[in-house]
Write a structure and sequence with these properties.
Strand 7 and strand 8 form a beta hairpin. By secondary structure, the chain is mainly beta. It folds into 2 domains: 151 residues, Immunoglobulin-like; 63 residues, Roll (SH3 type barrels), CATH 2.30.30.40. The protein is built from 3 helices and 22 strands. A 7-stranded mixed sheet has the order 4-1-7-8-15-9-12, with no helix packed on it. Helix 1 crosses helix 2.
């Protein structure tokens, strides 16, 4: 009987704390560990290690990590990235990378949530312009408090670097941190010292049943259409995947097209 009364007392005390200070602080006060989630994606597919321990391949997701700072490493052939990711209990952090053997042409972002409000932007290099849902807000590094909770499109742009577009949701009573690495543009790459001269593979678009070829943001038919090219158009090949090719259009848009409708020149 006394044991049951003690359990009831603990439950009522916990509910009282939740009502006064919230679930997360109440759980931490009573010594409970609230787990954190981590999502990691990459192009191309890469091996994932966390704090030096192999964790699998991308796309990778774990829902059973303790809050804290973790060293995440991605390896795909000559493309390697390593960075520190903060995990907060009750939230999830996202790592998205486009790997390359050249650091200058690699890009990606880390998104983390914490209690608070607004969005914090950092970039490498500094001084990238920030556009949110079509409105300019300033340059990195910058914290913007007046962003309302909900889904937003964030675009970071810097002279001589490729534009980076990120879609993310800002939850209620949370602060979102977006740390972006920008890839140097093709026009600027020619000014970098290189040990040898390389040529870009050019592709021509073949005839298609629709009379055009869709350019998608992901290498699958579920990817959003971000552009179109016509039969006879020329594009630059960036990467070959199974059934898909990553290409760059004349307007510097980068996306994926079906490999069966393009051929090398």
């Amino acid at each position: 009987m006394k044991k049951n009364l003690f359990i009831v007392f603990l439950i009522l005390s916990f509910l009282f704390l939740i009502g006064r200070i919230g679930f997360k602080p109440a759980a931490e006060f009573l010594g409970f560990q609230i787990k954190a989630r981590l999502k990691v994606s990459s192009l191309p597919e890469a091996m994932v290690s966390i704090n030096g321990v192999s964790a699998g391949k991308t796309p990778f997701e774990s829902e059973d990590l303790k809050a804290g700072n973790y060293k995440v490493k991605l390896e795909a052939g000559e493309g390697v990235w390593e960075g520190e990711v903060k995990l907060t209990g009750g939230t999830f952090s996202v790592v998205n990378r486009e790997l390359s053997k050249s650091v200058a042409s690699a890009s990606g972002e880390i998104l983390t949530l914490d209690s608070g409000k607004g969005v914090i932007f950092t970039s490498r290099p500094d001084g990238a312009t920030i556009e949110i849902d079509g409105k300019d807000y300033g340059v990195t590094p910058l914290k913007i408090n007046e962003i309302l909770p909900g889904s937003h499109t964030f675009i970071l742009n810097h002279q001589n670097f490729l534009k980076r577009s990120i879609k993310a949701v800002l939850p209620e009573n949370m602060s979102l941190t977006i740390a972006v690495d920008l890839a140097i543009s093709e026009a600027e790459v020619i000014n970098l010292p290189a040990p040898s001269i390389t040529t870009t593979t050019k592709l021509t678009v073949k005839q298609t049943p629709t009379g055009f070829l869709r350019v998608r943001d992901k290498p699958n038919v579920a990817g959003a259409e971000i552009g179109r090219v016509s039969p006879g158009d020329t594009v630059s090949q960036l990467e070959e995947l199974t059934g898909w090719v990553k290409v760059r259009l004349e307007n510097n848009t980068e996306g994926y097209v079906s490999s069966q409708y393009v051929q090398k020149i």
